Design the sequence.
């Protein structure tokens, strides 16, 4: 596939799954716009990828929990004279405390980051993709959106929004050559559990539950290119989704309440 002259914008590119998307898409020849808060990480990655793959790498340090950030990102892209062909809405995290104990500012920031900023970025960048008749959008949801709900603050609900919204937008955009895929990874090696403060519990989970981010990203990119609206990477995650999804809601509730290792 011809990727020369095409640009991918990846949010949360400073670590984990986002940095892996950046490496994968640079190897495919996409120029990159990397967005996250940690500029030093982005600079190191941009230097590595332009050296190894000869692609153009621009970076923007931005807090995507700031309501002004989507327009800041789109303005930066326009100022560079670039157009985004491939958007990876990946930046995310999960808090880890009781709902009433967590400050509202923290929870509002999570909603802004993973719901509003993610959605507004699509609203800002998709019209030009539709006009050109080609675009690819990966929204990183989670297996949490397909498995029984967890007592994990807003995370399951937020990722359910991302899953459903992606499918709805795919229906609208696909006739115009723009594919939208909700990526629903299970446990994936990254800094996610260090940030959440659950590394100790996570590292006691059996190894077969875990995937390397490279495998997740490979499957996600193949899925969005083929036009699959939902990608559940890895056999174990597919089995979990296939068995728990059809269960009655009362049983899902009980399973989610009993089996959550991070309570
Ligand atoms: N790892 C898993 O097991 C797993 C499973 C299912 C879904 N996911 C989802 O996968 C996505 C990527 O997570 P990961 O596992 O790769 O975790 P990670 O290694 O902790 O990376 C998270 C990325 O998000 C960025 N980010 C967080 N808050 C941000 C903010 N306010 N503004 C800008 N960027 C922000 C971080 O960059 P800075 O800190 O530099 O800003 C970092 O680049 C998330 O949406 C997560 O919910 C992960």
Sequence:
């Amino acid at each position: 596939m011809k990727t020369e002259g095409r640009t991918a914008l990846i949010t949360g590119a400073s670590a984990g799954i986002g940095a892996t998307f950046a490496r994968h898409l640079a190897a495919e020849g996409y120029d990159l716009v990397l967005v996250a808060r940690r500029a030093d990480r982005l600079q190191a990655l941009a230097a590595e990828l332009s050296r190894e793959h000869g692609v153009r790498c621009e970076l923007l340090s931005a807090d995507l929990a700031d309501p002004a950030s989507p327009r800041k990102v789109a303005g930066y892209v326009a100022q560079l004279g670039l157009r985004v062909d491939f958007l990876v809405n990946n930046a995310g995290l999960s808090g880890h405390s009781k709902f009433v104990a967590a400050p509202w500012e923290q929870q509002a920031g999570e909603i802004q980051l993973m719901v509003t900023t993610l959605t507004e970025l699509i609203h800002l960048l998709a019209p030009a993709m539709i006009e050109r008749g080609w675009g690819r959008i990966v929204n990183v949801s989670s297996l949490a959106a397909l498995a029984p709900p967890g007592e994990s603050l807003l995370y399951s609900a937020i990722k359910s929004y991302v899953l459903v919204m992606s499918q709805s937008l795919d229906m609208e955009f696909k006739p115009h050559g723009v594919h939208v895929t909700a990526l629903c990874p299970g446990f994936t090696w990254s800094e996610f559990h260090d940030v959440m403060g659950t590394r100790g519990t996570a590292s006691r989970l059996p190894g077969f539950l875990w995937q390397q981010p490279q495998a997740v990203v490979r499957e996600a990119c193949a899925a969005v290119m083929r036009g699959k609206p939902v990608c559940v990477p890895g056999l174990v995650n597919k089995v979990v989704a296939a068995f728990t999804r059809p269960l009655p809601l009362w049983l899902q509730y009980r399973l989610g309440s009993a089996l959550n290792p991070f309570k």
